[in-house]
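Reminder to self: tokens first, then the designed residues, so the page reads top to bottom the way the pipeline ran.
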């Protein structure tokens, strides 16, 4: 996702092979939970922002033209509740997710006229290897299937409307 040429090549391949794309889910992301922002090396900042935000830009830029041509499609960006709340020792991650939320809402307005829906899912802590979850009970955390279920819900809703944002939390506090 962080290599523009690779994303362009993939979009070209999909366009040549299938002629269209109906659903784009941007879910790749990295953490960067290494301590306070003022101690973060600039290379780490760049890696987090390039993966979590620039990669989404590349994918939308590569695939939205096919959706525009088809006058249909749904883009789902997986963000985080960290894009809604402060995250001490995770400022770069939070900044990337706040940015992803803003990008999602703006692109939704740009693409509405083309009958393309754009949604953002903001899950809380998901039981993955992305970040440390010290002190949290993995059994009470969100599971990857919970996020997948939210994506499925978004892309199968009736065509006359779209859910722009989903905040996904576990039933019990982990």
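Designed residues (174 positions):
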């Amino acid at each position: 996702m962080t290599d523009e040429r690779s994303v362009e090549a993939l979009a070209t391949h999909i366009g040549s092979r299938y002629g269209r794309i109906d659903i784009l889910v941007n879910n790749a992301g990295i953490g960067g939970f290494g301590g306070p922002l003022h101690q973060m090396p600039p290379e780490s900042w760049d890696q987090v922002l390039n993966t979590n935000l620039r990669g989404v830009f590349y994918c939308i830029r590569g695939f939205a033209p096919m959706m525009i041509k088809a006058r249909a499609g749904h883009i789902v960006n997986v963000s985080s509740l960290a894009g809604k709340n402060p995250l001490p020792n995770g400022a770069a991650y939070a900044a990337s997710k706040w940015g992803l939320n803003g990008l999602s809402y703006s692109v939704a307005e740009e693409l509405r006229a083309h009958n393309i829906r754009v949604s953002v899912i903001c899950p809380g802590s998901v039981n993955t290897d992305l970040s440390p979850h010290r002190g949290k009970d993995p059994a009470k955390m969100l599971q990857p299937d919970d996020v997948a279920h939210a994506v499925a819900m978004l892309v199968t809703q009736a065509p006359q409307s779209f859910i722009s944002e989903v905040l996904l939390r576990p039933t019990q506090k982990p």
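Residues 42-70 form the longest helix (29 residues).
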